[in-house]
Amino acid sequence: MAKKKETNSARRKDKKAGPGTGRRKSCACCKDKIVHIDYKDVPLLRRFTSERGKIRSRGMTGLCRRHQTQLAEAVKRSRELALVPYAAEPANEGTRPRRGRDRDRDRD
């Protein structure tokens, strides 16, 4: 019996259906009926920033475009007022010492 030939569109669907596919998260701020994200609400801002202080992407946070824009503005404003750090100190566990010119600076 002859094999059925797959079309290109069928192959593309298989490639797209990977580990990252699935239902998109609904916006947490829309669920909680938050109209505007306030820069003084530090616990809320910490939810959407990484341990290093970076703003997480829309794909990771699940926020809608409107709330992601408000979040970015609020985080930047709160960084200016020192409510949220620009960058957290990295954990020095397991890191190698720096090499190059800086390693001999304390030798004088």
From TrEMBL:
Pfam families: Ribosomal_S18. GO terms for molecular function: small ribosomal subunit rRNA binding; structural constituent of ribosome. GO terms for cellular component: cytosolic small ribosomal subunit. Keywords: Ribonucleoprotein, Ribosomal protein. Residues 1-26, 83-108 are annotated as: Disordered. The keyword Ribonucleoprotein applies. Residues 1-11 have a biased composition (Basic and acidic residues). The keyword Ribosomal protein applies. GO terms for biological process: translation. InterPro entries: Ribosomal_bS18, Ribosomal_bS18_CS, Ribosomal_bS18_sf. Belongs to the bacterial ribosomal protein bS18 family. PANTHER family: 30S RIBOSOMAL PROTEIN S18, SMALL RIBOSOMAL SUBUNIT PROTEIN BS18M. This is Unannotated protein. It comes from freshwater metagenome.
